[in-house]
UniProtKB/TrEMBL annotation:
Catalytic reaction equation(s): beta-D-fructose 1,6-bisphosphate = D-glyceraldehyde 3-phosphate + dihydroxyacetone phosphate
Biological processes per GO annotation: glycolytic process
EC number: 4.1.2.13
Organism annotation: Rhodopseudomonas pentothenatexigens
Record GO terms (molecular function): fructose-bisphosphate aldolase activity
Family (UniProt): Belongs to the class I fructose-bisphosphate aldolase family.
Keywords: Glycolysis, Lyase
InterPro entries reported for this sequence: Aldolase_I_AS, Aldolase_TIM, FBA_I
SUPFAM superfamilies, per database record: Aldolase
Protein name (record): Fructose-bisphosphate aldolase
Length: 344
């Protein structure tokens, strides 16, 4: 492992004003997204849609440091035969790859899951590196349901162990691991319950990373923010989310980690931007703090595009706007007026 090179890539992924596009929807998830806009999920439509994003020059060159791809996409060519990976590289962005193989029920823990995909991962990473991937992503999913005693320590510990196994294998393959332990926003829990569960999850994750000798300087953390569950009666202000999330991360994430890139987790586009902005406005943070959004970057371009070739420019404009808003938020320079100006 060359740690200096891993560190350089990790720092580029969270360079000031830049963040990550999570375009790694598995076939099932992209079908759900396309269903919403009435587009059939064929291989060509998936390619056309992602090509539209990767050819958004301003967004890709100025605001997007890296793109997380799904296995199908990393091998695909654009309509003119250019590999999609090359489009990303030509824009000055870094190709990355989702390497987990989804979740399975965790034995003896009803309703909880374990993320799988460690078997043969070393071989797969070597192939992805040859194809241009310089970082990878693995997502663990932790649910909250206090009425059933969920999450259990078993789910937290086994998922943290798998995340650390994955991260060690990535670094051995000269690939920067994005470590994503996602505590879901589903449910009626309040913000403090989310805070406490996320703290538990992050403590366990960093302990496993230590046990498995993962170099913190060569990784990126992709956590959820401290937010109330979607069905909670107690909403939280932008400032409360920002303050609690910063406090939580300072308590759990060593400063050797170059950057933290949040998932959006079902927040609205503007909420995800406002929260990121408010955290960066607090300032004095030991790590870069940016976005690694899927839905909060893509919902608008998906709607604008709606599968029609004549809407490509509108789809790219919508994507560029969201990427620019989040770039400003990553520097603490966003304001709600900037959103309104665009709408006007
Ligand atoms: C883009 O969605 C990713 C893939 O999900 P599936 O494996 O379920 O298809 C997902 O891992 C994503 O990268 C993160 O959850 C962040 O996305 P959001 O939409 O939460 O910002």
């Amino acid at each position: 492992m060359n740690l200096a090179d891993l560190n350089q890539i990790a720092r580029a992924m969270v360079a000031p004003g830049k963040g990550i596009l999570a375009a790694d929807e598995s076939s099932g998830t992209i079908k759900k997204r396309f269903d919403v806009i009435g587009v059939e999920s064929t291989e060509t439509n998936r390619r056309d849609y992602r090509e539209m994003l990767f050819r958004s020059n301003e967004a890709m060159s100025d605001y997007v440091s890296g793109v997380i791809l799904y296995d199908e996409t990393i091998w695909q060519n654009a309509a003119d035969g250019t590999p999609l990976v090359k489009l990303i590289e030509q824009a000055g962005s870094i190709p990355g790859i989702k390497v987990d193989e989804g979740t399975q029920p965790l034995p003896n823990c009803p309703g909880e899951t374990i993320t799988v995909g460690l078997d043969k991962l070393a071989e797969r990473l070597a192939k992805y590196y040859k194809q241009g991937a310089r970082f990878a992503k693995w997502r663990a999913v932790i649910d909250i349901d206090t009425t059933r005693g969920v999450p259990t320590h078993t789910a937290i510990m086994t998922n943290a162990h798998a995340l650390a196994r994955y991260a060690a294998l990535c670094q051995q393959a000269q690939i920067v691991p994005i470590v994503e332990p996602e505590v879901l926003m589903d449910g009626a829990h309040d913000i403090d319950t989310c805070y406490n569960v996320t703290e538990w999850v992050l403590k366990e994750t960093f302990q496993q990373l230590y046990f498995q000798r993962v170099a913190l300087e060569g990784m990126i953390l992709k956590p959820n923010m401290a937010v109330p569950g979607k069905k909670s009666a107690n909403k939280a202000s932008v400032q409360e989310v920002a303050e609690k999330t910063v406090k939580l991360l300072k308590a759990c994430v060593p400063s050797a980690v170059p950057g933290i890139a949040f998932l959006s987790g079902g927040q609205s586009d503007e909420e995800a931007t406002a929260h990121l902005d408010a955290m960066n406005k607090i300032g004095g943070l030991p790590w870069g703090l940016t976005f690694s959004y899927g839905r909060a970057l893509q919902a608008a371009p998906q709607k604008a595009w709606s599968g029609k070739a004549e809407n490509v420019a509108a789809g790219q404009a919508a994507f560029t706007h969201r990427a620019r808003m989040n770039s400003l938020a990553a520097k603490g320079e966003w304001s709600a007026e900037l959103e309104t100006k665009k709408a006007a």
